[in-house]
Amino acid sequence: MNISRLHAIANRPERTVIGLMSGTSLDGLDVALCRFSGTGMDTRISLLEFETVPYGEDYKQEISSVFSKRQVDLEKVCLLNGWVAQQHAKMILACLEKWRRPAGEIDLIASHGQTIFHAPKSLHKHAKFSNATLQIGDGDHMAIETGIITLSDFRQKHVAAGGEGAPLAAYGDFLIFSKKGENRIMLNIGGIANFTFLPGSLNADEVFCSDTGSGNTLMDALTREYFPGRYFDEHAEIASKGRVHPALLAALKDHPFFAQPFPKTTGPELFNLAHLHQAQQRSNTTGLSVEDVMATLNRFSAETITEAIKTVTDNGAGFRFYVSGGGMHNPLLMQNIRELLPGCTFHSTKDLHINPDAKEAVLFAVLANETLCGGAVNFGAGRNGIPNVSMGKVSFPG
User: Fold this and answer.
1) Domain spans of the chain?
2) Is residue 77 scored above 80 in pLDDT?
3) Is the previous residue joined to 167 through a cis bond, with omega within 30 degrees of 0?
4) What was the pLDDT predicted at 382?
5) Beta bridge pairs of residue 114
6) Which CATH architecture has domain 2-166+359-395?
7) Are 347 and 179 in contact (CB under 8 A)?
8) What class has domain 169-352?
9) For 79-95, how does the pLDDT look when each residue is reduced to its tens digit (9 = 90+)?
10) CB–CB of 102/96 below 8 Å?
11) 246-253 and 290-313 helices cross at what angle (nearest 10)?
């Protein structure tokens, strides 16, 4: 019966999918209600509704107790795995009620879950272990709570097939944002920044995707440390009052991650306050004002983003840039990026009919649609860190 339900959904001319994303900033759950027709390069998508449901202090504190920590209470991780899914399910149902859409009209949920640790081999360096990543928010709990078939745990197949579990944006970016004759860079500035190169040739073998390093994560962490109750440097208010300190900037960039070949992934496990404090010690800048440190972190994100793009795109010449993620709302960060990529044109994914704040949630909905109905696009045999696999584990509500 359950497989028959999947078969029926896959064969409908249109499918309604909720995409979810909960990032490292812990600001809230992105809920994107999408309608799909077609698959592969014929995928057509409409974003019907979108909302970011803010997390309360209780959720933030519970996740923070296990987030990006090498030593945690294993019982707490076990308890949170189901609890996170239950909290997300309540948020989904509240959105559906607000949007006046019955749960029975939704075909699938595509749930990213909540990352609590990301461990590519380049970071953990244990010879006998491969890449690893862990997201909690169990799909079975979500399916039971919502009554909707749920696809979850997308990153594990990517790791199993030789990838690092991130970034996954390449798949959805290619299917819904490619344009023949136009070379595009899809730049997403979340906690960690990443970009996807989409070739105007529409050749999937040429698609390239990589993390670049810190996006917002260090700036967010500094804000939380010095300004209780604030979670990010809104409108670059703090950074705009400071000045970039060259010695601290150089120390922040002096890390083996930046010398590693592309593609590569990273996370707050590396780019955290410990990284900042070590850089301050090495550069004798522990006495800097918080405003100067924030200005330097802002420039650090901008320089590492643009240097990565320049490395693989001949200085960005001839590419059209489409930006998404929370960092696009930081005016100083975007000013720095534009300054470092002179002559390049920047747009947001709004110009491609996708709310830039919804983009990551939408991309997981795309992955679910492709897993259920597609699979015809060949991304090659693991080259460029993009394994040719479908992703997502299926959980039925009954």
Assistant:
1) 2-166+359-395, 169-352
2) yes
3) yes
4) 60
5) 22, 136
6) 2-Layer Sandwich (3.30)
7) no
8) alpha beta
9) 999 999 999 999 999 99
10) yes
11) 50
For the chain, the residue count is 398
Strand partners, 37: 44
List own/partner pairs for 309-318 with CB under 8 A and 24 or more apart.
309/185, 309/187, 309/195, 309/212, 309/341, 310/341, 311/262, 312/197, 312/208, 312/210, 312/262, 313/185, 313/197, 315/341, 316/185, 316/341, 316/343, 316/344, 317/343, 317/344, 318/183
Look up residue 79 and give its amino acid: L
Amino acid 381: pLDDT: 64
Q: Give the number of other Cβ atoms within 10 Å of residue 217's Cβ.
A: 27
Ramachandran assignment for 26, one of left (phi > 0), alpha (psi -120 to 50 degrees), beta (any other): left
CA angle 95, 96, 98 (to 5 degrees): 65
124-140: burial string, b at 16+ Cβ within 10 Å, e else: beeeeeebbbbbbbbbe
Residue 28's H or E segment, with its range, is strand 28-37
Running DSSP on this structure, what letter comes out for residue 254? -
Pairing of strands 393-395, 150-152: antiparallel
Do domains 2-166+359-395 and 169-352 share one topology? The answer is: yes
**Does the predicted model carry a pTM greater than 0.85?**
yes
pLDDT tens digit string along 154-192? Answer: 999 999 999 999 999 999 999 999 999 999 999 999 999
CB 210 within 8 A of CB 304: no
- pLDDT, residue 315, reads 66
Q: How far is CA 337 from CA 160, 276, 310, 345, 393, in A?
A: 35, 21, 12, 11, 38
Phi, psi angles (nearest 5°) of residue 81: -55, -45
Task: Decide if pLDDT at 316 tops 80.
Answer: no
In 10 A of CB 60, how many CB atoms?
17
Tokens 């189901």 — which residue? 82
Which pLDDT score is estimated for 79? Answer: 98
pLDDT digits (tens, 9 = 90+) for 283-299: 999 999 999 999 999 99
How many CA atoms within 13 Å lie on the side-chain side of 127?
0
Mode of pairing for the β-strands spanning 15-22 and 108-119: parallel
C-alpha to C-alpha distance for 169 and 153, rounded to whole angstroms: 15
- Sequence-ordered strand ranges (E) for 163-290: 184-189, 192-198, 208-214
